[in-house]
Design goal:
Layout lengths: L20 H23 L2 H7 L4 H7 L3 H12 L12 H16 L2 H12 L2 H33 L9 H4 L1 H12 L6 H16 L21
Helix pairs in contact: 1-2, 1-4, 1-6, 2-3, 4-6, 4-7, 5-7, 5-9, 5-10, 6-7
């Protein structure tokens, strides 16, 4: 019997449907993050990203005219959302949980990629990626810390004059410094030590704040 142009029932088509629009863009951005994680900024090429996304190089260049444009969008799209401050009923626990969220963002695939890119690219490009860190991590973190401290002031847990921009920058500053310079991965114990040893004394009102320092509480405490 001669061959037929019809596929047998249930047989998979031989050609993969062409991806377009947002589906293709997401595949390209994901491939860019994958490339950053494997070959770094210097090894990443538009051709390599196109191959990883199983598309043509022209499809990448139509959307992103340069490697820096592509990487900046990939980092922004992949970074975990930091938009709502935890509300656990007390400043200490709120800060502890917020720091865990920030830690997860720092060590997410885009977070690790940002830090590795900053070590490799030139000063002008690094400045662009600093803006990504500020917009995606630092500024949202500062806003959430402010919200936590405001609630603490309203509850009488925190002294009123603690509403200061430098106070809100202590946690992101410490976390970024110790991640970059000291290689800290910010386990729960280290987060608890920062909250109890640095932030709580800094915010403390005349009375005791929370139920005392220490990271061994049932809620939010670090492992023994």
């Amino acid at each position: 019997m001669g061959s037929s142009g019809w596929k047998a029932a249930g047989e998979a088509p031989s050609v993969t449907p062409r991806r377009r629009g947002k589906v293709l863009e997401c595949a390209i951005l994901d491939a860019a993050l994958e490339q950053l994680g494997t070959v770094g900024w210097n090894g990443l090429t538009m051709e390599g990203v196109a191959a990883g996304a199983q598309t043509g190089k022209a499809a990448v260049y139509r959307r992103w005219p340069s490697k820096a444009d592509l990487v900046a969008d990939a980092l922004r799209a992949g970074m975990p959302s930091l938009d709502e401050a935890p509300d656990c009923g007390g400043v200490r626990e709120d800060l502890f949980q917020l720091c865990r969220v920030m830690r997860d963002a720092f060590f997410s695939r885009p977070g690790v990629a940002i830090r590795s890119v900053l070590h490799e690219c030139d000063a002008a490009t690094a400045e662009r990626f600093h803006a990504v860190i500020m917009g995606q991590v630092v500024e949202p973190s500062v806003r959430m810390i402010r919200a936590v401290v405001e609630r603490g002031v309203a509850r009488g847990e925190v002294r009123g004059d603690a509403m200061d921009s430098m106070v809100f920058e202590v946690i992101p500053g410490l976390m970024m410094y110790r991640s970059k310079v000291c290689g800290s991965e910010w386990g729960d114990r280290e987060i608890a030590e920062m909250v109890d040893g640095v932030m709580i004394p800094l915010l403390r009102s005349c009375g005791e704040l929370g139920d005392g320092a220490g990271g061994d509480r049932a809620t939010g405490g670090a492992e023994p």
